[in-house]
Every structure is written in C-alpha cells, then in structure tokens.
Amino acid sequence: MTVQEKQAWFILWVIFITLILYCVIYMLLHSVIIATSAFALTAIIAFAGMIGRKERRQGKVVSDERDVDINKVAMMVAYSVFWLVFVFITVGTTMWLGPHGMVPVSIIGLAPYAGLSLLLLVRSVATIVLYRKGHDA
Amino acid sequence: MMPEKWVITNTIRRHRFDANEMTQQELADRVGVTRQTIVALEANKYNPSLMLAFRIAKVFDMPVEQVFQLDETTASLL
Hints:
The structure holds two protein chains of two kinds. In chain A, 72% of the residues lie in helices and 0% in strands. By secondary structure, chain A is mainly alpha-helical. Chain A binds chain B through residues 1-2, 61-67, 131, 133-137, and chain B through 28-29, 32-37, 39-40, 43, 45-46, 48-49, 52.
C-alpha cells in the first residue's frame, strides 16, 4: 500500500467515526448544535501527514508521478460530487420550502463541516478505488 | 479507420529478469518511483510519463521502443 492510500484509509475512518459520533450525539441529545461538536474529531486528519514519516526519513520515495495523477483525479471527483450535492441541496431546499421558507441557523452552522466531510470522504474513496483498480500490491 | 483505444504495453518484467533478476524495488529506487508504480506498470495498469519511460529504458540500457510498445492494432496507422 502506498503512503497516499494509507492516508486515504485513515481519513476515511476518521470521517466515518465522526459521522457515527454525530448521529449518536444527535440521537441522545436531539440538538443539531451540540451534535455538530462531533466534527471537532476531524482535526485528527492533520495527523495523516505523519503517515510515511519513517519512509521519508529513510530516504525512500513516498510519492511519485502516479500518486500525483491519482490525487488529481480524486480531487476532481471530490469537487464534482461536492458541487452536485451543494447545488442539489440549495436548489432543492428552495424548491421544497418555497421563497419564504426558513432554514434553522443550526443547519447553516453544520454546512461547512458537512461539506468538508463530504469532500474528504469522496476524495478518500476515489483515491482508494483508483489504487485498487490499479491492482496495487 | 481510427482505433477506439490506444494501448501501451511494456516488457519491463522480462528486462528486469534479464538484468540479473533485478527486483521491482531495485528498479523503483533507480528510476525514483515507488515499487507500487513498477507493479502497476508491469500489469499495464498505468502509462508512464515520457521522462519515466526514458529513465526505465536507460536503466536497461536500451531504446525506449524496446521497453514500451504501442498496441499492434494501432501501430499500422502511424
């Protein structure tokens, strides 16, 4: 497994655990604002950069042109999905609630965290699929 | 009639064995890529950049056309 694939798996697990934690907190406390605090867990993603430190110290190549290509494609897929979901939610909400509808402020506060999680989730999945498709040893 | 798909194949694995049974890791270290990239190349799952193709050919001390080939069904159109 390459360092980038390991990082993708790490990020995927953090996002997955964060979403579960959000659901559990919401089910227990029925508060979107309090449940949003679960996204503080995503700060752990910063430690993904430590994966591959040992190989880097040993002077090994941890990222090459293939990794850059895969990262580019994964980012394109992630941004495309993010944009589609963003448009679907904003336009859909407007059509559903009408021009005079109201959205709770707590939902607005959740939006950036949900967007970031979606971006990272799709990017990680795309990265893993692209590596697996290449039958990585 | 233009082919639908251009495919680049390679004989890296054979040349590796011919070069004193060079391992994938050794080849990867010499051309500056990860072993996983060499695995993907040998499985024809990845097309290398021009620079990488030339570096691999230089390791085996042969022209790049001897290491990488365009699929025969398309070569005649060139």
